[in-house]
């Protein structure tokens, strides 16, 4: 009688990678959320003007766009895992250095360094999920999306008490520990991976010229051309842009909107923390549902409806029913984890996933950067929040149209006649057990 083959544990050999993904998620929004609650305390030591504070609100989106775009070519040269380690070290270094800044330009510069690492991490996570968890894209994307929500919501709640107890420099710099902790699992993966060690030795040997090993090329020229010419990729980029534009505009201007409505300056921080944390439940559920649905467009429609009612509430009655508007606005941006899941689900290989992630987030954040600036200019021109809120409502139509195309069940690289760079994808098709340590389940 033939004995049945033993079941393979779905997470076997991948727990260290999962820990790395979760810890990176916890690190990716800290530099954005940890500063605004303590600006008044900081100004006693660092003379930040109103213009510089406005720039501080724009730097995150610009950094995510610029350095997110750079993550793809860097990953082609170094490999996905080493690039993630570099990104985490950059973010931790930026956190520590800006905590020691004594001038406003220095604080802004080191903030950009911290956000550079986080922008690269944004782009690298979806292809890493595709690489190590092609059978669990929904749950793993949900796990790190929840961590993104936590990393956005927790710093505003603890930053001011920590600054009052230990000083604002500790309140800013202490978050570097999260970035350093997140780098540890990826170092373990690299050390235990024969292929990664060989690739790093090859880079050292070829330091006078470009690396040409297959491992160094998670996205080749064919993948780059395919993604940038794809209507699906552009639809995802526009959807990402409109969702992020709304999110960062709310982060930048919600406290002032509520203050102008007569709710007081203290209310803004509390409502902003609620806005951030309310995305957590949807971040947990949306990627899992996305992976099970032929098209997740109905989910997007529901989230956009929340956006629309929340904006309308702020427009018509901001001081009445404020809690309802904040709950709906907090749920609205949940299209974001859907898009993160789609990057893995709509690509045939991790090679394409890394290029698509860089393109969608680079273009998306570049467009989103116009939101806080444009809303501020429109408010200055009209003296009212009516026109900005009407524009934000109009942009939800653009989001819906683009999302309809982005959610269609199409996979980049599987269409007949499309030139996929197969050689660039070979490195990510190795069995997971060979990449992370062996058949015994290590690490």
Automatic annotation (TrEMBL):
Q: Which GO terms describe its molecular function?
A: transmembrane transporter activity
Residue ranges, compositional bias (Basic and acidic residues):
420-433
Going by the UniProt record, its keywords in alphabetical order are: Membrane, Transmembrane, Transmembrane helix
* UniProt keyword tRNA processing present: no
Pfam families named among the record's database cross-references: MFS_1
| UniProt main location, coarse | membrane
On whether Transmembrane helix is a keyword of this UniProt record, the answer is: yes
Instruction: Give the range the annotation lists for the signal sequence.
Output: none
Residue ranges of the region described as Disordered: 416-443
Q: SUPFAM superfamilies given for it?
A: MFS general substrate transporter
Q: How does it sit in the membrane?
A: Multi-pass membrane protein
Annotated localization: Cell membrane
The residue ranges crossing the membrane are 49-71, 107-125, 137-160, 172-195, 232-251, 271-290, 297-317, 323-345, 352-379, 385-404
Q: Name one GO cellular component term.
A: plasma membrane
For the Major facilitator superfamily (MFS) profile domain, which residue ranges apply? 13-411
UniProt protein name:
Putative MFS transporter
Q: Which organism is it from?
A: Cellulomonas persica
């Amino acid at each position: 009688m033939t004995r049945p083959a033993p079941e393979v544990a779905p997470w076997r050999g991948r727990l260290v990678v999962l820990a790395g993904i979760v810890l990176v998620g916890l690190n990716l929004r800290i530099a954005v959320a940890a500063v605004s609650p303590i600006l008044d305390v900081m100004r006693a030591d660092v003379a930040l003007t109103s213009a510089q504070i406005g720039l501080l609100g724009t730097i995150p989106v610009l950094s995510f766009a610029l350095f997110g775009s750079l993550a793809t070519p860097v990953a082609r040269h170094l490999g996905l895992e080493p690039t993630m380690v570099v990104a985490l070290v950059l973010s931790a270094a930026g956190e520590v250095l800006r905590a020691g800044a004594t001038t406003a330009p220095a604080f802004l510069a080191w903030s950009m360094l911290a956000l550079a690492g986080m922008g690269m991490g944004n782009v690298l996570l979806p292809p890493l999920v595709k690489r190590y968890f092609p059978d669990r894209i929904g749950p793993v994307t949900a796990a790190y999306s929840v961590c993104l929500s936590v990393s956005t919501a927790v710093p505003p709640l603890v930053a001011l008490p920590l600054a009052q107890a230990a000083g604002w420099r500790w309140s800013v710099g202490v978050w570097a520990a999260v970035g350093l902790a997140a780098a540890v699992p990826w170092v373990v993966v690299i050390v235990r991976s024969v292929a990664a060690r060989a690739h790093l030795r090859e880079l050292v040997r070829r330091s006078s010229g470009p690396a040409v090993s297959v491992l160094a090329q998670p996205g080749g020229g064919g993948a780059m051309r395919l993604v940038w010419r794809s209507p699906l990729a552009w639809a995802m980029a526009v959807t990402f842009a409109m969702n992020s534009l709304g999110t960062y505009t709310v982060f930048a201007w919600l406290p002032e909107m509520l203050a102008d409505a007569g709710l007081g300056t203290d209310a803004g921080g509390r409502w902003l923390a609620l806005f951030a944390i309310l995305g957590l439940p949807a971040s947990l559920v949306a990627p899992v549902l996305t992976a099970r649905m032929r098209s997740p467009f109905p989910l997007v429609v529901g989230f956009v409806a929340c956006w629309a009612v929340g904006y309308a509430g702020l427009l018509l009655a901001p001081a009445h029913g404020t809690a309802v508007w904040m709950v709906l606005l907090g749920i609205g941006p949940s299209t974001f984890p859907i898009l993160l899941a789609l990057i893995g689900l709509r690509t045939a290989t991790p090679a394409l996933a890394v290029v698509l992630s860089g393109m969608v987030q680079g273009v998306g954040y570049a467009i989103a950067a116009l939101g806080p600036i444009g809303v501020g200019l429109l408010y200055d021109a009209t003296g009212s929040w009516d026109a900005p809120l009407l524009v934000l409502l109009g942009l939800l139509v653009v989001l819906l149209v683009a999302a309809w195309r982005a959610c269609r069940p199409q996979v980049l690289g599987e269409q007949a006649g499309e030139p996929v760079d197969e050689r660039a994808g070979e490195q990510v098709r190795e069995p997971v057990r060979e990449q992370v340590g062996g058949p015994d389940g290590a690490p």
